[in-house]
Design a protein that fits this description.
By secondary structure, the chain is an alpha/beta fold. It is 25% helix and 27% strand.
Amino acid sequence: MSRKLRAAVAQLGPIHRADSRTSVVKRLIALLREAHGQGARFVVFPELALTTFFPRWWMTDQEEIDRYFEREMPNAETRPLFDLAREFGIGFYLGYAELTAEHGQTRHYNTSILVAPDGRIVGHYRKIHLPGHSEHLPNAPFQHLEKRYFDVGNEGFRVWRMLDAVIGMCICNDRRWPETYRVMGLQGVEIVALGYNTPTENIHHPEPLHLRMFHHILSLQANAYQNAAWVLAAAKAGAEDGFGLIGGSAIVAPTGEIAAQALSEGDELVSATLDLDLGDYLKRTVFAFEKHRRIEHYGLITSRTGAVTEV
Ligand code: CDV
């Protein structure tokens, strides 16, 4: 019997600085209802889905920064989303900023969670590839201060069994790094869930807009194929307080083909039926890792960070 899972990515349009979490959760719930109507049993929401993409703002007051973080999950604002998902029997991925304490130290993470259809949080991921900078760039059109506001994730790239599938998580910039998917691929990942906030403009050097979308889709397609996994990517899109984010939320098959893609830059749900056996087949054939990988030649991947030209 083939294994099929109806799943959706829930793209969010802009969330402005003044928008409350309660208003955002109402939008998440509307998308969840739509997903339920389409028979989806798993929904992927974006990175930092409860607030605006605040790393674009230079802030020095830690209290002001911490207002964008959640101290517990679920909390009063997000509880209605958890309750409705449980009622529908839908599992989901949700990205948010996490404030926590570890060994007496306050930590800030760019986090995503995997919530089971019974409402339990079964998985936790903290973003590892933090892009941007930590210093103020007064001449840039906006900031990208993830390196300032977040600690580097400390839990690796793990996978969890849920909905009879092996599911892994990553966040935004992680999707551009093949290591992200390969570490999950080596744990038999079948579905990679990811949320993202990708600015339409590159603050470091001018880049044509079409390349922003091209590199996003290229990263999903190449890594889905090379790891024989479904990739479910949910954007926060549109202009937040005037600052553009690309859309392009997509469901990519293990063949690298796009199974579904959002058309708008607003709140939009796209769904597809994931044939998990398709990934199994590729994992037994062209990407049978145990038959074809040559780890004796891959040492530099874990022993060297930056490229060094020795010739
Ligand atoms: N939120 C992100 O991680 N954004 C990065 C930008 C800075 C390029 C991304 O990879 O989309």
